[in-house]
């Protein structure tokens, strides 16, 4: 019996290694460019300022949205972080005084039990492993964002926007039926509206 590697798993492994190999300076420069690209090409063009935005704590070489978080706090926009609950995500308010606990993957989550559903957010900025210009997103493989937003219609809130390093772009991402498409992807050098 021969075993065939899932092309998504192979691609996931390659892209994770690529983003983990970025230097501290490359990561810092990418985070700075990301906030500039997001404010200039996306937020400035929104008809209405968002009230509730979800970000994430960067892990495993993901592009860091920490400067975006600071920008939103300065604009008095509420920030939420994902919390794993029953194989889906709920979102907990993130403030400078937030207390932390590790989830099953060793990722920090707010300890508060006060959560809101994804549908209550205006924008969700998602981490990703790989993306293509059609809005395809390759995540870490847990399916948490896909399950959380499985029933979301394209024109409903929240906007789902992937954040990534430019080196995570692939020409044509193999997409599965359960993959929830993104409405935009922002990298340090690109704003891709889908």
UniProtKB/TrEMBL annotation:
<keyword id="KW-0067">ATP-binding</keyword>
<protein>
    <recommendedName>
        <fullName>5-formyltetrahydrofolate cyclo-ligase</fullName>
        <ecNumber>6.3.3.2</ecNumber>
    </recommendedName>
</protein>
<keyword id="KW-0460">Magnesium</keyword>
<dbReference type="InterPro" id="IPR024185">
    <property type="entry name" value="FTHF_cligase-like_sf"/>
</dbReference>
<dbReference type="Pfam" id="PF01812">
    <property type="entry name" value="5-FTHF_cyc-lig"/>
</dbReference>
<dbReference type="GO" id="GO:0030272">
    <property type="term" value="F:5-formyltetrahydrofolate cyclo-ligase activity"/>
</dbReference>
<keyword id="KW-0547">Nucleotide-binding</keyword>
<dbReference type="InterPro" id="IPR002698">
    <property type="entry name" value="FTHF_cligase"/>
</dbReference>
<keyword id="KW-0436">Ligase</keyword>
<comment type="similarity">
    <text>Belongs to the 5-formyltetrahydrofolate cyclo-ligase family.</text>
</comment>
<keyword id="KW-0479">Metal-binding</keyword>
<dbReference type="InterPro" id="IPR037171">
    <property type="entry name" value="NagB/RpiA_transferase-like"/>
</dbReference>
């Amino acid at each position: 019996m021969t075993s065939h590697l899932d092309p998504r798993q192979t691609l996931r492994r390659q892209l994770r290694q690529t983003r983990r190999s970025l230097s501290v300076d490359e990561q810092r420069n990418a985070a700075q460019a990301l906030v500039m690209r997001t404010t200039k090409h996306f937020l400035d063009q929104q008809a209405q300022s968002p009230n509730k935005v979800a970000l994430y704590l960067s892990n495993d070489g993901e592009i860091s949205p920490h400067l975006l978080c600071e920008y939103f706090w300065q604009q008095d926009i509420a920030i939420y972080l994902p919390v794993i609950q029953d194989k889906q995500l709920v979102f907990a308010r993130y403030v400078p005084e937030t207390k932390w606990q590790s989830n099953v993957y060793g990722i920090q989550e707010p300890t508060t039990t006060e959560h809101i559903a994804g549908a209550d957010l205006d924008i969700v900025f998602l981490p990703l492993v790989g993306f293509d210009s059609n809005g395809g997103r390759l995540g870490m493989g847990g399916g948490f964002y896909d399950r959380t937003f499985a029933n979301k219609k394209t024109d409903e809130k929240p906007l789902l926007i992937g954040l990534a390093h430019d080196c995570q772009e692939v020409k044509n991402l193999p997409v599965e039926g359960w993959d929830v498409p993104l409405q935009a992807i922002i990298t340090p050098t690109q704003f891709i509206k889908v």
